[in-house]
Design brief:
This protein is mainly beta. The chain folds into 3 domains: 150 residues, Immunoglobulin-like, CATH 2.60.40.420; 143 residues, Cupredoxins -  blue copper proteins (Immunoglobulin-like), CATH 2.60.40; 132 residues, Immunoglobulin-like (Sandwich). Strand 18 and strand 19 form a beta hairpin. The structure holds CU-O-CU linkage and copper (II) ion. Copper (II) ion binds next to loops.
């Protein structure tokens, strides 16, 4: 007998026992190529706040928060069979990936919800771009993500980028009561009409962390993922000079972040090169002071007693190769403008006529529950577009477009220093930004604020590419 590769439970469906396998190596090969990784969506218990404290009932991919870190190589094909064991429907959206529209995981737009209590759906698509991405539900997202459903999806470059360690920090924000239970106030009008559901507990990879262990002399590639409903992070690495090498998965000219603070709105990612320049035994804080009246210590970088022997800290920087994205033709690009309005202290839709809708896009008050998907914009496939995003509200909005990456070009009319590709752009209150893209992926794609309570209560629309 030769050893049988692990087909998981799929094997039963494809092959009747090992005799067929022994007789037909070709069949075995075909079955292996078709084998899907499985990912369950279910209720689980997690130790978010640490030993000695109550555990928290969460919803997790494979029962974990965050879900398993999925790693692929650029150019590989992802194939995942999702099994929904929740008591409600769900979908999986692969945030930031350029994939076929039918795989985008938007309920009532690209697929039917995966049914509660045992529904299944196979997601399958190629991965053209390297970088840091993530996955999360797109149905009742504020509650489903707020209860724990999110995970990192890393697409590695064909040649590994030279670092000592490559890791991700999934930043999640929870609203917990005194017994460490997630509070159920997901439909709070107060949250929806203000900054969204900002919680009281921040976890890094699913737990409150006191420390993160490092070694003197090592170079880390730290992939930060903001998987929080509404919280914006502004991280400072005391005593260190991290350099940003990618944003939303796509390479950017390596640079120190403005004011030494890495700002990430919900949905956004940053890849940092962190040279561990501290001394053995040292402790340095990582702080978050985005909300200046509520600063806190995220964790301590704690240096071990030993130096990293083959540490790369201080070595010259290698460059990440760009992803194969079409460059928009800025001279011939057609112009569009999208205006975001509403919210407290703004022109809110009347609550008498538009219950639960606090935000508008181009004046439209539409609630997520109504699944109204008439396109806001229709773009010609292959065309270049220059789109101005105008925030006429007093609030921050991380605006996210599915299925594409766009160039961020200007803010408030000023060219930004390093134009870069992204899938989410954080608009400051009363500000605007210009983005440009080639509409090269056909289908109906969501454009929405990634503050999930804003998305549900009006700040969501469809961009059609035909
Ligand atoms: Cu990360 Cu439409 O979402
Ligand atoms: Cu918003």
């Amino acid at each position: 007998m030769f050893s049988i590769p692990d087909f998981g439970d799929r094997r039963r469906g494809f092959l009747k026992g090992s005799i067929a396998l022994a007789l037909s190596p070709w069949l075995a090969h075909a079955a292996q190529a078709a084998a899907a990784r499985r990912l369950s969506v279910r209720v689980a218990q997690a130790s978010l706040v640490g030993a000695g404290n109550p555990r928290t009932e969460v919803w997790g991919y494979d029962g974990a928060v965050p879900g398993p870190e999925l790693r692929y190589r650029q150019g590989e094909r992802l194939r995942i069979e999702v099994e929904n064991l929740l008591a409600v429907g769900t979908t999986v959206h692969w945030h930031g990936l350029r994939l076929p529209n039918a795989m985008d995981g938007v309920p009532h737009l690209t697929q039917a919800p995966i049914a509660a209590r045992g529904g299944r759906f196979v997601y399958e698509f190629d991965l053209p771009d390297a970088g840091t991405y993530w996955y999360h539900p797109h149905l009742g997202t504020a509650e489903q993500l707020g209860r724990g459903l999110s995970g990192a999806l890393i697409v590695e470059e064909p040649t590994p980028f030279p670092v000592d360690r490559d890791l991700s920090w999934v930043l999640s924000d929870w609203r917990l009561d005194r017994a460490a239970r997630i509070t159920a106030d997901f439909e709070s009008p107060m949250d929806a009409s203000h900054a969204g559901r900002i919680g009281n507990t921040v976890t890094v990879n699913g737990a409150i962390r006191e420390t993160f262990e490092v070694r003197a002399g090592e170079r880390l590639r730290l992939r930060l993922i903001n998987a929080s409903n509404a919280r914006i992070y502004g991280l400072r690495f005391e005593g260190h000079a991290p350099r940003v090498i990618a944003l939303d998965g796509h390479p950017v000219e390596a640079h120190g972040p403005a004011n030494n603070q890495v700002i990430l709105g919900p949905g956004m990612r940053a890849d940092l090169l962190l040279d561990c320049s501290g001394a053995p035994g040292a402790i340095h804080r990582v702080l978050d002071d985005f909300y200046s009246r509520r600063p806190y210590r995220l964790l301590d970088l704690r240096y071990g007693a030993e130096r990293a022997t083959s540490g790369r800290a201080g070595a010259p920087l290698a460059e990440l190769a760009p992803n194969p994205l079409a460059q928009p033709d800025l001279v011939r690009a057609e112009r569009r403008r999208i205006v975001f309005g509403g919210g407290m202290m703004g022109a809110m839709p009347s609550q008498r006529e538009h219950r639960g809708v606090y935000w508008t896009i181009d004046g439209n008050p539409v609630h997520e529950r109504d699944h109204l998907h008439a396109p806001l914009l229709t773009l010609a496939r292959g065309g270049s577009y220059l789109i101005e995003l105008v925030n006429q509200t007093s609030w921050h909005h991380p605006i996210h477009l599915h299925g594409h990456a766009f160039l961020v070009l200007t803010r408030d009319g000023q060219p930004i220093m390093r134009p870069h590709f992204a899938d989410t752009v954080l608009l400051e209150p009363d500000s605007r930004a210009q983005i440009a893209l080639v509409a090269d992926n056909p289908g109906d794609w969501m454009l929405h604020c990634h503050v999930l309570e804003h998305q549900a209560s009006g700040m969501s629309a469809v961009v059609r590419v035909v």
